[in-house]
Design goal:
alpha/beta, TIM Barrel, 9 helices
Length: 267
């Protein structure tokens, strides 16, 4: 029997964390990644709302697996924005993660601009190295998520950055759906490339692209059966985090739980 459980990004059910947990627990989900709450995206959330979130986790016996502040989505040319995220957003996110007993921060890997010179890659390594150092100092893991149009887009390119940073605190948040549309098939090629660095996995599906015509898992073009079988076989992660991305959220999140649970059972 496999030991991989299912988690979910809480706002893929509701921006109201209590409501998200209410539905999630009814589906057997006790692990939640925090991205957006009613008052905004972490760390730009109201203190009272986050304190209520912590109280809910304790009262309902659920776990916060990661916080996702949406950092490093800017191009490398926007250094002032990147500096602000490095020096302000990351430390504030880490502080919230520690308060909520989360051990992971999820970031992105820098949007690529048309005609951007390859030498700017060194700047990407520099920023990610500094962010990883902040995480490591506080006993956190930093997971960089692949996304099309970014320096970290394919499994191979994401692994390259992680290896060049060379920090024990840095790993990959592998999103097979986000790898679709690159010059690499998400599974098996992308997965096999990024496998040594994976510390977290996001699950969604699509008919056309990462953020275009998303559909419930199993109804799109991503080989989730093969991907789940590989994750069970390789024992890389202890949970898979659902990131529904298609409305109606509650109905489709429930479908994703059912489909992924079935695939895990079959694997």
């Amino acid at each position: 029997m496999n030991s991989i459980s299912l988690g979910i990004v809480s706002d893929e059910i509701s921006n109201d964390f209590d409501e998200a947990v209410h539905y999630g627990l009814s589906w057997g989900i006790s692990q939640y990644e925090i991205r957006v709450l009613r008052s905004g995206r972490v760390p730009d959330v109201e203190e009272e709302e986050f304190e209520n979130l912590i109280q809910t986790t304790r009262a309902r016996g659920v776990e916060i697996t990661a916080l996702s502040p949406g950092t490093f989505k800017h191009p490398l040319s926007r250094q002032s924005d990147l500096d602000r995220e490095l020096n302000e957003t990351f430390p504030r996110t880490i502080a919230l993660a520690k308060k909520s007993s989360a051990s992971m921060i999820i970031s992105f890997g820098f949007q690529r601009e048309e005609g951007e010179p390859p030498k700017l890659y060194d700047r990407a390594v520099e920023y990610m190295s500094k962010a990883a150092a902040l995480a490591e100092k506080e006993g956190m893991r930093l997971a960089v998520e692949n996304e099309p149009g970014f320096w970290c887009d394919t499994g191979a390119n994401t692994l390259r950055l992680i290896r060049d940073v060379d920090s024990g605190a840095l790993g990959a948040n592998w999103d097979p759906c986000n790898a679709y549309g690159t010059d690499e098939r998400p599974y098996p090629e992308g997965y096999e490339a990024i496998k040594p660095a994976i510390i977290n996995v996001h699950a969604k599906d699509t008919l056309k692209g990462a953020l275009i015509q998303c559909v419930p898992v199993g109804e799109g073009i991503i080989d989730w059966r093969g991907q789940v079988q590989a994750l069970v076989r390789d024992r890389i992660v202890r949970h898979i985090t659902i990131e529904t991305h298609c409305h109606p959220l509650v109905e489709n999140s429930r479908k994703n739980v059912e489909v992924l649970r079935k695939l895990l059972k079959e694997a």
